[in-house]
């Protein structure tokens, strides 16, 4: 078989064998172009050097994708300036190509070290000329100075998706131009410097916007007003005081709070189905308790590292609740949940949640993962599956009668299930002493199927005896 060797000029200095009669060359042009559209542009350009057929093929692709960290390995080399300049030259030369007759649907440019604002401005003229539909620009400034986005891009009427990172965006007030993005469906800002009035003017020019992600510096009292918006992700950075959202068709709201407290007004979002708060200082008053019942379409609620002492969740339509504690200022001591249509409840945390009260007759799945055992009160007559994880640091714990009594009470509240899985980081934690077995009733008389797993299995017989006492009606018992 004929073989020829081609040396890659990407900094790896590795040789690879490439068959001179490869399968992809036999494909029709349309199929080959579709495959090439998923590759980084630098690789497609290199392929043009392999055969005559590929020489001009790269100029027909519909997607241009440049990313310096991926395309070159200059960051690992002592003399990285030369490789950096190679990347700059590659992008510049590619964008000089007229791409006549070719529609560029997506233009992606991610650069860490761009060497000045003028170069970025020149590169961004290309999507303006070609009427790009999806634009993804991310710049990592080497100083606190951010490159300013050209206002011309905010009038690119063909855009359906705009993702910006590391840029500065400001629209003067009163505006000197009108934003015109009539086709835009997705707008994402990551590490972008912008302002309240700029955001207002921007949203006014996006009448069809459905998905918005804001991870910005410079916002103080932003207002998100949009009748078409369906999904909003908001990252609190800097000195944000109040976030007001008026989006009557909003289905999903996700909030990440990393820099202190913030007032959130969602009164104009009655159709929210998915609500998620991460690292939010929201549970210190009655705001959250009053919000949830008002969301009559709410189906999924997630609280991840939310600061507060007490939370009460009351909602008629809620189907899923997930509470997670990863040790970040999480002081939630008690959770009271009154949700008749709840299907799934998950708790994943440390040892701070002391009490859980759940009134959910329709609950089917319950998962509890923690270093300790909470006092639980459960009304769930249709429980099908229970998953209990007792993990992390249990080997240092003193397993006394208090521990085992808490475990027995905890399990007894989950007796309604037919199937249960228990994982313990330490065998002793689930081997209930004989004296307690003699005085306490079995906590799981109705459970039919039980699986027990441990990190190290040395006392299988003792675990078996303990579980057969706890669940005397078992039909299947698996210990692994």
UniProtKB/TrEMBL annotation:
<dbReference type="InterPro" id="IPR032675">
    <property type="entry name" value="LRR_dom_sf"/>
</dbReference>
<dbReference type="InterPro" id="IPR053772">
    <property type="entry name" value="At1g61320/At1g61330-like"/>
</dbReference>
<dbReference type="InterPro" id="IPR055411">
    <property type="entry name" value="LRR_FXL15/At3g58940/PEG3-like"/>
</dbReference>
<dbReference type="InterPro" id="IPR036047">
    <property type="entry name" value="F-box-like_dom_sf"/>
</dbReference>
<dbReference type="InterPro" id="IPR053781">
    <property type="entry name" value="F-box_AtFBL13-like"/>
</dbReference>
<protein>
    <recommendedName>
        <fullName>F-box domain-containing protein</fullName>
    </recommendedName>
</protein>
<dbReference type="InterPro" id="IPR001810">
    <property type="entry name" value="F-box_dom"/>
</dbReference>
<dbReference type="Pfam" id="PF24758">
    <property type="entry name" value="LRR_At5g56370"/>
</dbReference>
<feature type="domain" description="F-box">
    <location>
        <begin position="21"/>
        <end position="70"/>
    </location>
</feature>
<dbReference type="Pfam" id="PF00646">
    <property type="entry name" value="F-box"/>
</dbReference>
